[in-house]
């Protein structure tokens, strides 16, 4: 599936001063910690962590990545570029039939995910792009820290510009995407392909 070099490239950057805890706590356990500290209580409340609020079933994944979307003001009306991570057949098809991205346009990536039952911290999206087996780009975007809630979170990445020119348009690009936290826990890992063209 991938080489050891890929595994190294898909590891998150080290956060200075961060030491992995090794054991995850539930939201209720975090709510009880340092309960008398008012500023900490306000920060925990901003993450949806309050004492006595049950986070429900603690089995299953802490994070469920729902979609990855590429958005651009130049997209024709009605056209969307959305990867539904729950549709494995469609994801597998994008490896064989690359999506088309217009060259030289501004676009941004948007990710939607659900935090199920535990606090998550230092979560990142990592994207490794190769062409003909050679790494041509790597993106690492911090998603942040979140508490569990019923509604999904959406994170918009910074605007980027797609490459352009004859060389950029020749061949397809293979992408490996991963959502991982500072502790190295992988929440999603998938592959897809794209081609650059003069039009969408």
UniProtKB/TrEMBL annotation:
Instruction: Name its cellular compartments.
Output: Cytoplasm
- Primary site of residence: cytoplasm
Q: Which InterPro entries match?
A: Ig_E-set (IPR014756), Rho_GDI (IPR000406), RhoGDI_dom_sf (IPR024792)
Chain intervals for the UniProt region annotation (Disordered): 1-28
Note the superkingdom of the native organism. Answer: Eukaryota
The alphabetical list of record keywords is: Cytoplasm
Protein name, as recorded:
Rho GDP-dissociation inhibitor
